[in-house]
Amino acid sequence: MAASASAGVPATVSGKQEFYQLLKNLINPSCMVRRQAEEIYENIPGLCKTTFLLDAVRNRRAGYEDPHPRVRAAACTTLGQMATDFAPNFQKKFHETVIAALLRTMENQGNQRVQSHAASALIIFIEDCPKSLLVLYLDSMVRNLHSILVIKLQELIRNGTKLALEQLVTTIASVADTIEEKFVPYYDIFMPSLKHTVELAVQKELKLLKGKTIECISHVGLAVGKEKFMQDASNVMQLLLKTQSDLNNMEDDDPQTSYMVSAWARMCKILGSDFQQYLPLVIEPLIKTASAKPDVALLDTQDVENMSDDDGWQFVNLGDQQSFGIKTSGLEAKATACQMLVYYAKELREGFVDYTEQVVKLMVPLLKFYFHDNVRVAAAESLPFLLECARIRGPEYLAQMWQFICDPLIKAIGTEPDTDVLSEIMNSFAKSIEVMGDGCLNDEHLEELGEILKAKLEGHFKNQELRQVKRQEENYDQQVEMSLQDEDECDVYILTKVSDILHSLFSTYKEKILPWFEQLLPLIVNLICSNRPWPDRQWGLCIFDDIIEHCSPTSFKYVEYFRWPMLLNMRDNNPEVRQAAAYGLGVMAQFGGDDYRSLCSEAVPLLVKVIKCANSKTKKNVIATENCISAVGKILRFKPNCVNVDEVLPHWLSWLPLHEDKEEAIQTLSFLCDLVESNHPIVLGPNNSNLPKIISIIAEGKINETINYEDPCAKRLANVVRQVQTSEELWLECISHLDDEQQEALQALLNFA
């Protein structure tokens, strides 16, 4: 039952004035007023809600007075939330009115906070706005943003006001990030103002502005590309170097640090090998900061009490009137320096080779640096990239480096106490295995790894049992349940990393790793039991998917463990489980050999049933459904004797194109090429009647960025289009079914492939 109106909350909203009152109540200090307002707000029709919001943002008159600035700010925030919740349909439907309203609000100099909220809403709106729509307003929008930037920069110089400017530079970065190369014509009008902002932002209170502007510059540079950016590269690099030179003096909570890290990463990406000239200037100070050892002390309780909070020490009471202390003031700078080293190794590769040995000797011991989680995260993250760098110097040098890394990295998986850090260490190990390849682990390493993974899986099941016990205790309530769910999410995340490690072993060692794997087999089989929570079944199936994909035909000896779970989980309520099952059925057809023929036959009706379900293409279900479509295609392609191809093929063609799962989409396009190139009569249709459909599928593949020009499939698809073009009548018939965007996509494909 809906709550009755009170404290000024209208029971219904029939006009703008009541809607503005409702917006005020949404930010009312009273919880009861806010809850009642939220109930009413949820029941307002979408179109009416959007109209009222836009009027509020535009500052139109409502009755006898303009909306209060707080109402306008709330309206901007709500528009941003709607842009997130209903993307991309909200953007497609309201792009013209929303962009215009938010830009006008940003231009209005009456209230900095309203301007800031409008800029924030525009950022959110742009993130999910199709590029093709955004370019319609590009010129007026970008020039408006530049005019506002000039005004806000003058206000900074005169009055020191910065709130709207901070949000504005983030908006500019978001626009550049979205439209990419189309930002080139506007580069020259923005870059001088952005550089000037960095130069002006020297006071402590302007550090956040400086950090955001540096980030904006790097986004703009990445958008326009190296050729255009090079005219300012030297000047921008000097600004960055000047800021980095103060790294040792940065406070732990300095807002610039995170922006600096991401900006340096983009600068490496923009400049590529040209960045190497700057590396000697920054690498040694970074290594020095990353190598810094924290001050620690063992003090009496009385000495601790006499110390000031401003001294930058944290203490842990050890009992017996003694405390262990660590000076934390330099730890954030150490973590930031380590993260920058990660980015340099990742982006520069060949250019970083000379520093690889020095950095790996720094990073490996930091896997045990328990004073700061982000230091250990950076240490773990760096190792696969350092191995990539080492590989450039040859296999012997690479083997020596791996020998130095491997044992401490495995031990860190077994000893790391923090879940978030552990996940990064496990991810690093999995990536390192893929870099090193078959045979990189000796018997002792495999034995230790097996024991660790077995303990992780056994701990996973034990923790689930303990949580169920806690749910039966007297003090169990909603707060306890939330805590238990958080614990469960952490456990599941570690389970995904166990899956990643096994994936790396299966994909590199192939069937040779199966005897080692059998110590874990009972635990993996337990994951896919019908009574397990759905994430267990999802990841258990993923592990068997990898065995089928990488270890066939030997994988068939485990078929009785996964046959029925894979088929039955095609009916599961959770799309993630259906996706894992469908993918497994597809790789059975592709890699499994003749032993899997009967299983593939059983799978087809289950896959078709999921595809034809009424809600199969909803946002929640679409990726699972696309995996089903791809699996049917793989069965048709690799196990045609298992199915009536002539009956199923027309249905499969009608389900294309795939939009969301890029890997499966390219598989389907490759099969489509096979069929067209062989002039398959069912696919081409009577008198080539299916060709317009096929051409539209290819166009959609280009629009959705499924087609990668480096993939051989791109050239084959382009050749299909060229073949159709040889018949003018047929080509005109095909393009008559395409809109302008699809025709442009086809032309782009032909130009590059």
Automatic annotation (TrEMBL):
Residues 160-294 form the Importin subunit beta-1/Transportin-1-like TPR repeats domain. Pfam families: HEAT, Importin_rep_6, TPR_IMB1. Keywords: Acetylation, Cytoplasm, Protein transport, Repeat, Transport. It comes from the Eukaryota. It is found in: Cytoplasm. GO terms for cellular component: cytoplasm; nucleus. One of its GO terms (biological process) is protein import into nucleus. Its main location: cytoplasm. This is Ran-binding protein 6 isoform X2. It comes from Odocoileus virginianus (White-tailed deer).
